[in-house]
Amino acid sequence: MTITRDDRLGSALRLLIGVILLGGALGILNSTMVAVGIRDLAEDFEASLGTVGWVSTGFLLAVTVTIPVTGWAGEAFGGKRMWLAGLGVFLAGSLGCGLAWDIESLIAFRVLQGIGAGILDPLVLTLLARAAGPRRAGRVMGLMAAVLSLGPVLGPVLGGVVLQGLGWRWMFLLCVPLGALAVLLAVRVMPADPPVERRARLDILGVALLGPGFAGLLLVLSQAANGGDLLSSPVLVPLVAGVLLLAGYLVHALRGEAPLVDVRLFARRGFAASVTVMALTGLAMFASLIVLPLYFQQAGGHGALAAGLLVAPLGVGAAVAAPLAGRVSDRVGSRNLALAGGFVAALSAVLFTTFDAGTGDAAVVLAGLALGTGLGFVGPPAMGAVYRTLPGPLVPQGSSVLYMLNQLGGSIGVAVVALIFATTTGPVAGLRAVYWFVAGTMVVLLAAAARLPGRGDR
Asked: Alpha-carbon distance 317 to 313, whole Å?
């Protein structure tokens, strides 16, 4: 059979997508593996759930803070250079986590891992969006969401296997050979960076305001989870500082010529709706990935491997739904698909609030499958809407903001689970409270999804 030029280009695109997704999947795979090991880490280091929660929260916060800087660095130094740099930082953080000697050092190396993931993640979106073009945005975003959804499928199972057979350190050390393979493939497959004629100025003041502002607000939830009074200085000081820093950034961004994150993008109706939907999707997904293993282990008496297997259907639902949703959204638009998925996710969250200690594992697994399926129908249409509605020059900035808020939503989800479990009595009460919170976020998600572009909107 004769291979046409279009066939060759299609094959090259598929290979490039595969290499990019391998590197991009490292962070999500590692995050979901760690979710199963929260209880083991708390016992091994004799730390509270609120403190151990920073193993996940610190990682996600580092991703959130690094993403907007990556948007500038990718343009200034080139996508391939930054991709290899991100892999190198992630590998160093993974090795450090595997060798950590106390909970503080583990959190510090997880932050380093998060910086590496924060370099990789927005580049995944930017590189794929540019390669696919607007007409295939939903299809490629659906493929990306499906592959990255394998993290919630494989991560808990792999994490359970590793915990039972090798110990928690190997949850991080396994990333080292996978990351090395990703580096070798990227060197061979990714095209060389074009020469950069002029490098834009980095918004240093924006970096100094935005990152600590987010960290201050998340620290409030962590201090409250550790038993801090809402009016005590350990809670009140980071709350006030976080609010002031973010308010300062808002003033700076509106006045500055080239802010780190251009808040004027939020004046675009479709963009504001997309990033809001993605933030709430991240919150619901990461909250579920933390609370369900704890529920299965504490209320059901299951080991880490069994808990991982029982959580995996959550990711299976998302992995199956995502490519279908992405493909269909290219034809029918984003709004109706996201509304349908958000409605299913909301009903599933409410169903979780009815479970108790006598509920069978099958019912919890089916509810998780339904929740994952609903969220799988939300994410790709919302991501595709960004690339259909933004002009080409704004796509890198839009990608950074989209993924930044998705990860920030995940950070909030993890912190909220730690806070709820610290203030409720027993895993059943904790599960119910978490999913009432998730159900509320799904109501907000539905309101935002109603503002996504429909068929033919640009």
From this structure: 6
> Model's pTM, two decimal places?
0.76
Distance CA 27, CA 34 (A): 11
DSSP 48: -
> Could you give the residue ranges of the DSSP H alpha helices within 166-232?
170-173, 175-189, 204-225
* Burial of residue 331, with CB atoms counted within 10 A of its CB: 0-12 exposed, 13-18 middle, 19 or more buried: exposed
Q: Cα–chain-centroid distance for residue 376?
A: 13
Q: 57 vs 137, 175, 189, 277, 455, CA distance in Å?
A: 30, 19, 33, 20, 37
Task: Quote the tokens at residue 12.
Answer: 């090259």
Which pLDDT tens digit goes with each residue over 187-196?
A: 888 777 776 6
Condensed to tens digits (0 to 9), the pLDDT of residues 383-403 reads 777 766 777 667 767 777 877
Distance CA 304, CA 171 (A): 13
- Report the candidate in 23, 192, 55, 215 with the shortest Cα–Cα distance to residue 119: 23
Helices and strands: H and E segment counts in the chain: 18, 0
Superfamily of domain 8-189+260-449: MFS general substrate transporter like domains (1.20.1250.20)
